[in-house]
Automatic annotation (TrEMBL):
Pfam families: Kinesin (PF00225). One of its GO terms (molecular function) is microtubule motor activity. This is Kinesin-like protein. Gene3D superfamilies: Kinesin motor domain. Belongs to the TRAFAC class myosin-kinesin ATPase superfamily. Kinesin family. GO terms for cellular component: microtubule. Residues 7-337 form the Kinesin motor domain. The keyword Transferase does not apply. ATP binds at G93, Q94, T95, G96, S97, G98, K99, T100.
Length: 337
């Protein structure tokens, strides 16, 4: 792996905008402007603001296709991985804002497929165009559910499930015991992705009838070996997709019982993620990555040598303005890392 640290790239994607007076998506200038309506502004204390404007690396409105999102944001990360760098794509945002749609998309409509299946296609088409290299790819799929590591691929043939643990390597963190399945072609890699997708913890609540209850981490690990050079040099690289569980207000999701416990964990782990992002942005010293399994696992993506893209998904609905502001503020903090 080579060092590639650049500023973390941040893209904002709005699902749809219900009230352009209050939410203005401006792809041409890569900005988003939010103006609170008077009734919300007056409910905030005097020293709080009522309008904001943020600049990101990319901004997409509700009309942007899955293809456009992939081509403009994720394809450069995949291409860096194919040159031997590590890459991470993180989908973040409020529950129901479109994170899983961005990550996986529709399993039945080809044009609606998300960034992970498109990345798989790009990896294997690149491998086919480079016969001078042997490309070996393995896939793994992990879920962090209530701070427990769960292997989503244990139903595939292979050794039985082991208990999983995080292990620090030189600059990144790996998961000991996680199954890595060799995938020879695009179809095999998609099969692994969709097997894991089907096994994710999902529940129905007021804002999403298939809400992810854990953070999902899909990883393609690659080895490139020259068939023509005798040195036998091997380049290794990793492409990681993280579909985070959505932040949620308990009042809005109207969850109770188990679901409520999951929500509390989800919100807490996202708060830890925010704290780690702030620490990584302001300090070159200690960053509390070990605060949760999620931040520990994302050490390389946040403060290491991974080429990292954050896609901040926002609903764009006036009813969720406060959550949208929280998402956009997090995305702005991440851009400072
Ligand atoms: N840009 C979009 N275009 C069309 N449909 C979308 C778009 N974004 C999201 N959807 C649809 O909205 C619903 C909720 O989206 P999704 O499940 O991706 O949200 P999420 O952010 O992953 O939510 P959660 O955090 O609760 O898991 C899904 O039915 C999805 O297909």
């Amino acid at each position: 792996m080579q060092a590639v640290r650049e500023r973390l790239t941040v893209a904002v994607r709005a699902r749809s905008v219900s009230n352009p007076d209050h939410i203005q998506i401006r792809p041409a200038s890569s900005t988003v402007r939010v103006v609170l309506p008077p009734e919300l502004a007056s409910a905030r204390s005097d020293n709080q603001r009522s309008s904001w404007e943020w600049t990101y690396d990319h901004v997409f409105g509700g009309e942007s296709s899955q293809e456009k999102i992939f081509d403009e944001t994720v394809a450069p990360v995949v291409d860096a991985v194919l040159r031997g760098y590590n890459g991470t794509v993180l989908c973040f945002g409020q529950t129901g804002s479109g994170k899983t749609y961005t990550h996986t998309g529709s399993m039945s409509q080809f044009a609606q497929r998300g960034v992970a299946p498109r990345a798989i296609a790009r990896v294997f088409s690149h491998a086919a165009s480079q016969p001078q290299y042997e490309t070996l790819v393995t896939a793994s799929y992990l879920e962090i559910y209530n701070d427990t590591l769960v292997d989503l691929l244990t139903e595939l043939p292979g050794p039985g499930p082991e208990s999983l643990s995080l292990v620090d390597c030189e600059s990144s963190t790996t998961v000991r015991g996680l199954r890595a399945v060799a995938v020879a072609d695009e179809a095999a890699a998609l099969e692994v992705l969709f097997t894991g997708e089907r096994r994710r913890s999902v529940s129905c609540h007021q804002l999403n009838d298939r809400s992810s209850r854990g953070h999902a981490v899909f990883t393609l690990s690659m080895e490139f070996r020259s068939r023509v050079e005798s040195s036998g040099r091997v380049t290794r690289a990793k492409l990681v997709f993280v579909d985070l569980a959505g932040s949620e207000r308990l009042k809005k999701t109207q969850t109770s019982g188990c679901l409520r416990g999951e929500s509390v964990y989800i919100n807490q782990s996202l708060t830890h993620l925010d704290q780690v992002v702030v620490a990584a942005a302001v300090s070159r010293g200690h960053v509390p990555y070990r605060r949760s399994k999620l931040t520990h696992l994302l050490r390389d993506a946040i403060g290491g040598n991974s080429k990292t893209l954050l896609i901040a998904n926002m609903s764009g609905q006036a009813a969720h303005l406060e959550e949208t502001i929280a998402t956009l503020e997090f995305a702005a903090r991440a851009r400072a890392v």
